[in-house]
Amino acid sequence: MIARRSILLALALTAAAVAPGAADTYPSKPIKLIVAVAAGGPMDTIARVVAQQMHERLGQPVIVENRPGAGTTIGNKSVAVADPDGYTVLWGTVAAVAIAPVLYKDLGYDPKAFVPIGLICEFPHVLVIPNSLPAKNLAEFVAYAKANPGKMNFGGSLGTPPQLMGVMFNKLAELGMTYVPYKGGAPSLPDLMAGRLHMQFDALTLLQPLIKDGKLRAIAVTTPTRWAGLPDVPTMRESGFVSFPGNPWAGLLAPPKTPPDVVAKLNKTLNDILASPETKASLAKLNVLLLPGTPQDYSSYMGRQVPLWMEMVKASGATAH
Q1: Mean pLDDT over all residues of the chain?
Q2: How many helices and strands in the chain, by DSSP H and E?
Q3: What CATH number is attached to the domain comprising 62?
Q4: Total-model pTM
């Protein structure tokens, strides 16, 4: 009997020693990728490209679930309280960790508790004006706005990077323009092209086709160097606004306490995707800047960027209830 027990114990210990870890068996079922904005926009489009590539590499469906509302807090909170098993991840943006925490007194989640998986990309923005204005560059636009105090306005969805950039630029350049709220970037474009709005910051993903078609005039980009697709358009820095904030971003965030080995597997998958020629070609058409790296790189990136965006929200005076 003792010998038999010894054999069984030895077998059990051997089995335990060779049992696969979480990352070896993960994923064994579909993964939910929560996107906290409505379907159809640039964020959602790119999230779906990444989700399809994750599916092909991980062998399990990666299902994009759009959970918009309350300044992205509904979707963000759903991930913050999800099981930390790697089967629910967040399309993490500047809104989740920097904008919403200033706008909302009670988020329902701790933005600092999310576990960084990996940064995916930045969304370069461009400052555009209607063709009806006489200004041909940023300096001429500033001069024109100052010569027409109280007569000009700009648009954007409340609490979003386009609105915050507009408010920041309006203050820095002392333009005296009026902010007009819209429910997203696309709804404001007809008014902008018709000259009822006089400037707008928004993603190149959205605006570059209109710029190329001559429907809007680009006068500055928010990238550190000139954007290849608009080589004749200077940067904000070149135009004298050296301290103007950079671009919004997207990455993957996991619920608090997600195991490191699961995070590592997702990060490797993500970096493989971003390095693939297929993904580079697909996302190049959407005018984004790919930024692969480690979870630690993403954490450091947010450590630098979050305070800048939080200050911009505070400076804008925007609030939510």
Answers
A1: 89
A2: 13, 11
A3: 3.40.190.150
A4: 0.82
